[in-house]
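Justification of resources, computational component.

The compute hours requested in this renewal are based largely on the per-chain cost of generating structure records like the one below. Each record pairs the submitted sequence with a full structure-token output. That output is archived, and it is also reused by downstream analysis tasks.
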Amino acid sequence: MLPDAAVVQAANALGQSLIARHGLQAQVRAERLHVTLMSLGWAHALSAEQLAWARGTAARVSVAPFTLRLDRALSFDRPARAKRPCVLCGPGDAHAGFHALHVALHAALWPARPVPAVMPHMTLCYSHQAVPAQAVAPLEWTVRSFALLHNLRGSSGPYEVLGEWPLDAAGTGQ
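The structure output for this chain reads:
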């Protein structure tokens, strides 16, 4: 999910503050800030069939817009020597809309697979140093769409947007 411009600006400033306070490295560029909903894998590119499947499935998902609030910063655990993502996140029980979208999309893509737990998060930077969980000034916005992003491995440039779908105000289909 792509945040609006005001949230991108606030997240960028927060990332800079965390880097200065904790001696972190590798801030995520503003044009790459997003909230991860799920991954379709780490292949170099989706095949034409996979892309058509993902787009067609996404177009059928019906969830109402929702407010997303991220108010904690922390580092995800990683193996020794690996860079840890420093992320913004929020309490899982406060994200009913996010979880409804995650469940609907996962169930549409992979109906036979159990839906994995997911924490809404936005990666701000990567560093070997860990950031302890801490409250931060909240970033909040109304999510009105979700997007399929392609990350060209090794690229620091913007993601390629392969599709974007509005959320349905009535939550009943488009």
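Strands lie at 66-75, 84-89, 121-127, 134-143, 145-150, 160-166. Residues 72 and 81 are 24 Å apart (CA to CA).
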